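Contributing new records

If you add data, match the layout below exactly. Sequence lines come first and carry their own label; structure lines follow with theirs. Keep one chain per record. Anything else will be rejected by the validation script.
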Amino acid sequence: MNAMTDRIAGVLVLPQPYVLFLGDTTVPGFAKTAFGLRDWAADKCVGELRLPGATVTTGLEALTAAEAHARGARALVIGVANLGGVIPANWRASLVEALEAGLDLIAGMHMRLADIPELAEAAHRLGRQLIDVRVPPPQIPVGTGRKRSGKRLLTVGTDCALGKKYTALALARAFERRGIDSDFRASGQTGIMIAGGGIAMDAVVSDFEAGAAELLSPDAAPGHWDIIEGQGALTHPAYAAVSLGLLHGSQPDVFVVCHEPGRTEMLGTAGYKLTSVEEIVELTLLLGRRTNPAIRCGGFAFNTSALGEAAATELMARESARLGLPVADPVRGGPAFDVLVDSCLA
């Protein structure tokens, strides 16, 4: 029922192309899996499938499951990461319909596809795959704190779903363009679907978080860089444990703070104000020095998607002068992003 996989190596073999399932989602932040695949694996996506009531769209062509299969899709990807990672009852008829149309199902939710009786029965009857990406490798060791060879960059954030994955992917591409030996290391379900490998850190038992991060970024050549996708935020009331384990285990030489200007509350936890970028730098240095005393901040990645070009450029220049480090939007790119890359490699 699960995909062929080498879990220790983090290699997944996923049926492609995909159709992206958005359910009845109304919160854009919860559809980050779909948006991530659209933006970073567009050649693997044939369209989207939405249910009545959905207000979120990727902008891809709306298709039925049968239409998606006729266009070449081989799997339906649940493109939503909602609170608790659940698959609601009102989605399930559509998921069964996708199986009947000839599509496998891929999910990165905490709820396992095979644990849902109607999906398990349909997949067995039709000979289809139910593929859960959010499954950690077996026998993860406890973290040792041993200093590993090679160089590492970790993206951290002031909140969830504001650009840590996008920043890591953009930096990995920038390093590659400069001829630098590097790898993108995925730590979340969307990154794994894009990269084809990784470890879903939020599915790991807390005692083994640091050990999983050590597996994710093993010893490497002295000049090799691992660009590690961050998770959550050190100050998030729900997800800080994942962020801390990833920080300690990845032992970053450099970190980049990701932030969305204008966001005031933490995603999914109304009443908790967003942490300032300065506090995240302070906390990351304080806690990160436990496993890498030489850790430093390379700069800031701002998600300025809500701003026009001129306003974004002015804001980032002002904040860079105030903070004393480069500030750039990795999606916009340009000279400011080149300066950020320079700072990370300095």
